[in-house]
Amino acid sequence: MMTKQRNFTNMLDVDQDEALALIQRAEEYKHGAQLRLAEPVYVVNAFFENSTRTHTSFEMAETKLGLTQIAFNPAASSVSKGESLHDTLLTLDALGVDLAVVRHPEDRYYEPLVEGGDLGLALINAGDGSGEHPSQSLLDLMTISEEFGHFAGLRIVICGDIAHSRVARSNAEILQRLGAHVFFAGPEDWYSHDFDRLGTYTDLDAVLPTVDVVMLLRVQHERHATTGFSADAYHEHYGLTHGRAALMQQRAIIMHPGPVNRGVELASDLVQGRQSRYVQQMRNGVFMRMAMIESVLRANQLGGIE
Amino acid sequence: MMTKQRNFTNMLDVDQDEALALIQRAEEYKHGAQLRLAEPVYVVNAFFENSTRTHTSFEMAETKLGLTQIAFNPAASSVSKGESLHDTLLTLDALGVDLAVVRHPEDRYYEPLVEGGDLGLALINAGDGSGEHPSQSLLDLMTISEEFGHFAGLRIVICGDIAHSRVARSNAEILQRLGAHVFFAGPEDWYSHDFDRLGTYTDLDAVLPTVDVVMLLRVQHERHATTGFSADAYHEHYGLTHGRAALMQQRAIIMHPGPVNRGVELASDLVQGRQSRYVQQMRNGVFMRMAMIESVLRANQLGGIE
Amino acid sequence: MMTKQRNFTNMLDVDQDEALALIQRAEEYKHGAQLRLAEPVYVVNAFFENSTRTHTSFEMAETKLGLTQIAFNPAASSVSKGESLHDTLLTLDALGVDLAVVRHPEDRYYEPLVEGGDLGLALINAGDGSGEHPSQSLLDLMTISEEFGHFAGLRIVICGDIAHSRVARSNAEILQRLGAHVFFAGPEDWYSHDFDRLGTYTDLDAVLPTVDVVMLLRVQHERHATTGFSADAYHEHYGLTHGRAALMQQRAIIMHPGPVNRGVELASDLVQGRQSRYVQQMRNGVFMRMAMIESVLRANQLGGIE
Lengths: 306, 306, 306
Hints:
The structure is a homotrimer. The first copy, chain A, is built from eleven helices and nine strands. The first copy, chain A, is an alpha/beta fold. The first copy, chain A, has two domains: 11-132 and 285-299, Aspartate/ornithine carbamoyltransferase (Rossmann fold, 3-Layer(aba) Sandwich), CATH 3.40.50; 134-282, 3-Layer(aba) Sandwich (Rossmann fold), CATH 3.40.50. The A-B interface holds A 45, 47, 50-53, 55-57, 59-60, 63, 69, 71, 73, 75, 221-222, 258-262, 272, 279-280, 282-283, 285-286 and B 42, 44, 68, 70-73, 75-84, 87-88, 90-92, 94-97, 118.
């Protein structure tokens, strides 16, 4: 059930059963399960965008699984001489790398790589442009599952820059398939009607008293720097202030993919507050990435897993 | 005796007995002692300032102790998206990192981290702004101990940019407590009367014939670049020229924390000369850092050390 | 036979027998041979120029041999404070590093290091300025050997920026000694008569129908950016177009050290075409570097190899 993903590039390829199986396997890892590799697996983490959570989480997951990491720093690579991502991965493949975990600013960068057929190495997408971020989606599902034990009927609002968020896209799609009701909130300029088929765009204040999960998206200051964006105004209109938090049900939870802009998406002391699952999300991420990597290893018959 | 440091942030927390115990343990490592970890310890080196000696020395010490290193590059992390040091360490903690070795340009950056109480990981300070540099202090003590076997009554002159040197601050304080007589020399503009309680500001030429140790501080060109600083003039007035070296006692030694500006703090061929302990300091650093890390592991019950 | 290289800096030190022995040993590694180290060997890869192929290939070779890698990033080191390469290596040596693999933009950077006599660590040159690139030369020889089984009498044309190519220099010299006939082609401005003693400067079209190997050099755009260089014009006049490829003998092969500028040095679809050995070169590089490292370990009695 967990062996379908030759490459793990987007959530559209992950059906409900597989998502639930990954959550279960991640929970096993969280409770101490270990994998034994009979053969070395060489992995490269190629992050073409800055990252702490996702990058370090993959490093940790690989270490815990016993993979052999080969250092690779895009900034000090031939990419700076103009070499394409394809030719860089072709090189890593030729050098004997079995698995590449890639983050790249280009939407769907992985399609020509996977479809080209000349790359022997397996690929895990750790985030593409405004596209997908499957490991974040799955760790979010795991965190919701730990809280509620199910998805059907849950009411989940995703608030922020919907149009440009890979988290919004990946999550809304799978949550809907799992039977949750998805709402979108945030500035109208940051919403795209492409998302209409995945949920309902609404006012945050209106929906807050009824939801089980408030999923806040990071404001990408680097994207909005030149548009007269005001952090204070954002917080007042779309952020989880103390006033808005008081509207939430007691058993509802707050989620954020990080890094948090404290005092923007939510009030600073809510980040580690009673209803926040921010730290738990990061913790779960390591175990979910272990499950995803195992799935890819099995699909590619890597590591000699019995 | 070596188990007091929950976090190793500054020399003020290190009493005389602990300093001597660390030196003894470092000497044991230098003579081949090995530590056996029964459980993995995950460590991150987070250097927010450039470093060769200290950074690589910690990498080597951790490797020799059998710690599991998780790659982390501040320049490619979410720090560049504005994430704070606290939130970065909160992330690493959630990901399962047990120990962070941190260098950061801000004075006493570690205080809010240690006092906040929300970080489970242990912290070793590898240098903070113009503040402390405990591992450098301890390797300096080890090097002095190897030479003289004691500290009481030793006469030690520290020469250079006293006010902005974390080495000067850390060393003067502990050397005084260990019974040494500390002198300061160098440009008056670079001296601060904050140091009066730790030693005597004096003329280098006057004190050179009587001291056991000449401790030269690196000129931080990056700090003095815009002030009309002249390397030649500095060498002539405050550097260890051949003329000044000839004033030293035969058994006196020269120390420098590195990197050396050859021909500025001291004449180039004195760097690896008979009286210099520059290379020995670097060599000792690995073993002292092993002792410091062991101390922190024991205090935090990490690694399952019997 | 394989134990001569105390430091592996240039091909002039490698005699024919040693080259053939290295090829044989690399083939053994390619067919699964393993080395067993009885003692840890600490290695640093210090790349002062960007690289994917060579850097990652050395990382992989070291990992497969079981060396212990110590992380070192020149951009985050004291080199940025002005520390010299010599003093950086002196530091790494003092910290216990046994072997440094260095790429540096300065021609013959290694000479003062090797001749100084104060460095205990062994050195492998991974490319110096416009000078030497011994690991590339040897993996090229390995690839030619796999194809033809011998070197005597082979006709090999090297095309491109001969004057500034470390590949051209290293390869022409050893190929000539091994009995091959070497030809040079490419823009006259990019040729230097220093190479006259190693081969014949000629027209690419004239020699193409008669050669066994076409060795294309990378156009260093970073070098020619300001000179009105036209990629299209280069491709038309000196590149391996489909038209020129049709002039080649059926059994002749195409080689390129990478990274390829597709559509400049050669037509894009020739890169992975039937006659290209581009991927095979990269693959062979790991095994050749294993053989080179073993040679240096043995010459320095490192690793306790029986």
